[in-house]
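Task: sequence design from structure.
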């Protein structure tokens, strides 16, 4: 892979151009990473509405009919259902890990087999989450295993 970066102060925003012989898994991951950088989510924290970059979210989980976004150091509540959030984050690094959880693969630093064909995912903040056996094959495929 050849990477060419040119700084141009005349540009108003970042421009990304990808030239490739074919769009493969590697190119798709680059596209997903670029797209997620501009995605913003609105959530509540301490009675205030906050805007959080989707790229900063490690995972999202529904607990007692409420959906929470987990960053490296915060837990925020979003008004979106997990299905709405999944739709909003489609074509990004987010993948369904359980019926109640989406995980940002960009923050998965390792994984290992867990009981009953499940996967334990080690996240960038040191936390570990378990993906159900129903969604484990998709996670392995998206990671490239």
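Answer:
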């Amino acid at each position: 892979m050849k990477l060419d970066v040119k700084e141009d102060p005349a540009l108003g925003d970042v421009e990304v151009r990808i030239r490739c012989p074919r769009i493969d898994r590697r190119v798709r991951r680059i596209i997903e990473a670029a797209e997620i950088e501009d995605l913003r989510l609105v959530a509540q924290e301490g009675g205030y509405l906050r805007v959080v970059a989707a790229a900063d979210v490690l995972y999202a989980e529904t607990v007692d009919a409420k959906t929470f976004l987990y960053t490296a150091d915060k837990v925020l509540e979003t008004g979106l259902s997990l299905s709405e959030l999944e739709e909003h984050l489609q074509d990004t690094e987010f993948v369904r890990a359980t019926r109640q959880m989406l995980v940002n693969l960009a923050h998965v630093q390792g994984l290992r087999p867990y009981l009953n064909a499940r996967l334990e995912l080690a996240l960038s903040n040191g936390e570990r989450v378990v993906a159900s056996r129903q969604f484990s094959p998709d996670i392995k495929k998206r990671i490239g295993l």
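The longest helix spans residues 25-37.
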